Structures are given as structure tokens and as C-alpha cells.
């Protein structure tokens, strides 16, 4: 078999015959309504029940579809392929166990520019049952797990667990699992790369210009299966799309922001003079667990360092980030256990004034640089040094294109403009040896007519705790 012939992954009959794009649930419904079942001779045919599987394809869409189309047009792309976990989740709304395990290149998500072409989520067959509780909105391409060579033969059964059965003791959950396995029987590819190649071919893009968040994937496709695919480095194209949030993303970001602020305040109010600075992060982690998410970090600085113990009367910076359903919550506060100096009080009052001023001034079209100047000017008016700078927040803490050292830095700088429904924080960090370290930030949403809406409380006043 030639490398190009291996694209079908052992089962050309399993390729979707699509004249226009339908969702995964629509495909299942059409399959269930078909007058004859072409899979009648399959091992698991009697377990097919497409009507039971619609929930696997009902995930709220995170992807900003119209913006994705506009950015793809900007770079002349026919499609996008995600192999990095947060981009897979962004395109497909699915975050499964393989990516959580850190098994790179075991899952792909593909999104075409042609609105009538089918997107695809490529997943291992033995893990497809995870879509029961971690759904997608995309059609699914399944490969035999563990994925073999692109020149190998796919197992018609998606999972080895579909072979040894005890149907006489099946319960409803067993029947649902068998329905999942049965739906993909005979539609398997030999490997994740073969499944991706099939998805691109189904979309008419075997010779397309495709943006890859990891360009190695495009190179592998060229070597193994699709020599005519044009690969474009989309490492920074993905975050350019993600910079403007959809309503579903805003809902998750609000939850992440509120929960992270709650975890941060819990950590502060459960810490005392003499406690290790590390203990604050442990409290943050504990509270996040109770809130159904994860602490990513809660860095506490006194005198510019994150080691040691909480000292009395010392200005203390706490910068915290957690995640909820993959989305980041980013909130920072300044604390003094004991009595703050007048200079610290003035700085925190100026922080709050600077943030209120810049939040009111920000509008779609303003550059990040202009917002930073507003913050600096407020500090200058107060007669104290100070700086501020924004960064978008989303599936990454810094949810924006970022220079790798090989990029056109001027082009990336030109992208740093506020847009409606961009979520960001305005950092106002300060460290002066002998004075100490301070910092505050909240997550904000840019409004269409100017100004910002806070996702967290926005209370940036100095927190004073008893010593």
C-alpha cells in the first residue's frame, strides 16, 4: 500500500459522504432514519442506537466562528488544525483524557474555512466514551487505539474493550457504551495522523493551505499521507482569534474570575504573621478544589521574594491564577498584616484611581500602549512612579500572540488593540527594594460603546489584616 493510499486508515467505506456540513448529532439522526443499514453485517450492529448519542454532540461552542473566518481570510487559510490542548478545546469544545495526560499528537481538531465543509475531532476509539460527559459539537473521526503507523491496517472495532462481552448481564449503561462503540465500527483509521488526513480529505483540502498550531504536524502529513497540503505556522494565529471572546467563553471566564477571587481572599484571611509564604498558595489550592476548579499559582512576594514567612507591617503582593473548565481566572491583591506606612497607603489609593481612570477610558480601537500611558500619567500626577500594562486572559493566562523570537515583532505589536468582548487584566506591579512589592489586578470585559465591565469585584483597595 502506498503512503497516499493509507489515508483511508483501512476503511475507505467509513469516510463521510457529505454534500454540505452537518453537525455530529445531525449525522447520527440521519443515520438512524436511513431506510437500510449498510452496517448490518458488523459485529456490533445490533447495539447501534444513534438516538442515544445526541448528547455527545451538544457542547456549547467556544469558538468565535466569524472571527475565525475573518482571521483565516486575512492569512489566506483554508483551515486550521489544533494539536495543542487549549486550541483543541477552543475549536472543538472538548478536553479529553489524552490531552490531559499530556499525550501529544493523540488528538486533533480541524476547522475548515468553507462553511459547508465538515470539521472534525480526531480521537482514539477506546477513549471515545469520554464524549459521554465531555461532549463536542464536531463530527468525530476515530482511530484504532493505540494508534499505529499510517501504513498499518485499522481495526474495524474502535476499542479492544468491544470484543469480550457479557450481553446477558448488560445494564442501561452497558448498552449506551456499546451504542457508542457500534456507531464508529468500521469507520476507524490506523492512527491519529491518518484520521486527520481523512478529515482534511473529506473537507476537500488534500491540497489546502492549512494553519497548524504545531507546524511539525503539517510536515508529517506531507511526508506520510498528504504531500500537497500547504503548511502555515499558526502558533500566533490561534491566539489572535481567541483574543475576542464568545458569550459561552464569557460565562466561563466570569466563573473563573469569581472563583479565583474567592480562593485568593480565603487564602489571605486564613493566613497570619509567621506563616510560610508557601502556605498562602496551599490555602488557595484548597479553596479552588472545593469550588470545582484548580489553583495554577498563588505567588506571594514580600521584599521582592517569594520565600520566607509573613512579616508584620510589610507590604505584600499576592498574584493568583486558577482555572475553571480550562479558562483562567487572574486576580491580584496587596496586603499588609499589621500597620501599613503612609507611602503604601498612597500607592494603593493611586493604583485604584489609575485603574478606575483607564477602565473608563478604554474603548474598541484603543491600543494597549495608550492604556499603559494613562496609568503612568495618573501615577505621575500623584508624584510617585508607577506603570501599568494589559494582557488578555482566556484559555491561557496571556491569551494573545506572543513573540517566539522568530516573529515580526512589529506585526505582533500592531495586534495589541482593545476590541469589544476582549477579556483582560491591567497589571500595575511595583517593586522598590527597601519599600517592598505591590500589585493589583482584576479581569475586565471591553464594552462596545467604551468602558469596561468587571468580572471579579474590582475592589483593589489595600487589604489590612491584624498582626
List the helices and strands and how they pair.
Elements lengths: L23 H10 L31 H11 L3 E4 L2 H8 L4 H4 L7 E5 L7 E5 L15 E4 L28 H13 L3 E2 L2 H11 L6 E4 L2 H10 L5 E4 L3 H6 L4 H23 L7 H14 L3 E9 L12 E10 L2 E11 L4 H20 L6 H14 L7 E4 L16 H6 L8 E5 L2 E3 L3 E3 L4 E4 L5 E3 L8 E3 L2
Parallel strand pairs: 1-6, 3-4, 4-5, 6-7, 10-17
Antiparallel strand pairs: 1-2, 2-3, 8-9, 9-10, 11-12, 12-15, 13-14, 15-16
Helix pairs in contact: 9-10, 11-12
Could you provide a short overview of the structure?
By secondary structure, this protein is α/β, with parallel strands linked by helices. The protein has 13 helices and 17 strands.
Report on the architecture of this protein:
- The chain has 467 residues and is an alpha/beta fold.
- It is 32% helix and 18% strand.
- It has helices spanning 24-33, 65-75, 85-92, 97-100, 172-184, 192-202, 215-224, 237-242, 247-269, 277-290, 342-361, 368-381, 409-414, and strands at residues 79-82, 108-112, 120-124, 140-143, 188-189, 209-212, 230-233, 294-302, 315-324, 327-337, 389-392, 423-427, 430-432, 436-438, 443-446, 452-454, 463-465.
- The protein has a seven-stranded mixed sheet with strand order 5-4-3-2-1-6-7, sandwiched between helices. Strands 8-9-10-17 form a four-stranded mixed sheet.
- Strand 15 (443-446) and strand 16 form a beta hairpin.
Amino acid at each position: 500500500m502506498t503512503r497516499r493510499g493509507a489515508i483511508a486508515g483501512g476503511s475507505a467505506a467509513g469516510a463521510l459522504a457529505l454534500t454540505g456540513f452537518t453537525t455530529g448529532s445531525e449525522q447520527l439522526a440521519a443515520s438512524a432514519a436511513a431506510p437500510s443499514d449498510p452496517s448490518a453485517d458488523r459485529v456490533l450492529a445490533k447495539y447501534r442506537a444513534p438516538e442515544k448519542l445526541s448528547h455527545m454532540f451538544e457542547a456549547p461552542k467556544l469558538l468565535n466562528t466569524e472571527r475565525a473566518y475573518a482571521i483565516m481570510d486575512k492569512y489566506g487559510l483554508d483551515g486550521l488544525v489544533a494539536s495543542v490542548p487549549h486550541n483543541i478545546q477552543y475549536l472543538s469544545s472538548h478536553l479529553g483524557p489524552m490531552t490531559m495526560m499530556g499525550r501529544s499528537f493523540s488528538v486533533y481538531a480541524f476547522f475548515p474555512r468553507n462553511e459547508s465543509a465538515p470539521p472534525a475531532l480526531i480521537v482514539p476509539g477506546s477513549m471515545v466514551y469520554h464524549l459521554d460527559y465531555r461532549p463536542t459539537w464536531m463530527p468525530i473521526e476515530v482511530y484504532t487505539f493505540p494508534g499505529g503507523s499510517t501504513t498499518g491496517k485499522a481495526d474495524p472495532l474502535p476499542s479492544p474493550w468491544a470484543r469480550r462481552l457479557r450481553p446477558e448481564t448488560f445494564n442501561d449503561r452497558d448498552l449506551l457504551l456499546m451504542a457508542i462503540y457500534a456507531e464508529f465500527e468500521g469507520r476507524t483509521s490506523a492512527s491519529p495522523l491518518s484520521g486527520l488526513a481523512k478529515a482534511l480529505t473529506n473537507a476537500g483540502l488534500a491540497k489546502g493551505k492549512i494553519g497548524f498550531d504545531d507546524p511539525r504536524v503539517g510536515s508529517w502529513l506531507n511526508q506520510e499521507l498528504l504531500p500537497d497540503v500547504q503548511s502555515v505556522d499558526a502558533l500566533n494565529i490561534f491566539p489572535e482569534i481567541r483574543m475576542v471572546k464568545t458569550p459561552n467563553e464569557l460565562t466561563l471566564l466570569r466563573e473563573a474570575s469569581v472563583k479565583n477571587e474567592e480562593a485568593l481572599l480565603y487564602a489571605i484571611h486564613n493566613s497570619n504573621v509567621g506563616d510560610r509564604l508557601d502556605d498562602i498558595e496551599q490555602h488557595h489550592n484548597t479553596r479552588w478544589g472545593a469550588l470545582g476548579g484548580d489553583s495554577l499559582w498563588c505567588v506571594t512576594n514580600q521584599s521582592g521574594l517569594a520565600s520566607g514567612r509573613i512579616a508584620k507591617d510589610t507590604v505584600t503582593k499576592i498574584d493568583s491564577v486558577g482555572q475553571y473548565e480550562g479558562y483562567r481566572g487572574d486576580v491580584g491583591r496587596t496586603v499588609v498584616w499589621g500597620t501599613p506606612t503612609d507611602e503604601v497607603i498612597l500607592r494603593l489609593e493611586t493604583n485604584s484611581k489609575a485603574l478606575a481612570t483607564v477602565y473608563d477610558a478604554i474603548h474598541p480601537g484603543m491600543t494597549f500602549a495608550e492604556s499603559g500611558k494613562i496609568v503612568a500619567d495618573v501615577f505621575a500626577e500623584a508624584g510617585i512612579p508607577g506603570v501599568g500594562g494589559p494582557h488578555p486572559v482566556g484559555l491561557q493566562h496571556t491569551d494573545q500572540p506572543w513573540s517566539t523570537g522568530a516573529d515580526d515583532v512589529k506585526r505582533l505589536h500592531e495586534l495589541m488593540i482593545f476590541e469589544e468582548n476582549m477579556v483582560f487584566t491591567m497589571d500595575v506591579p511595583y517593586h522598590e527594594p527597601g519599600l517592598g512589592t505591590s500589585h493589583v489586578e482584576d479581569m475586565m470585559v471591553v464594552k462596545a460603546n467604551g468602558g469596561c465591565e468587571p468580572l471579579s469585584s474590582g475592589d483593589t483597595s489595600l487589604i489590612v489584616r491584624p498582626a
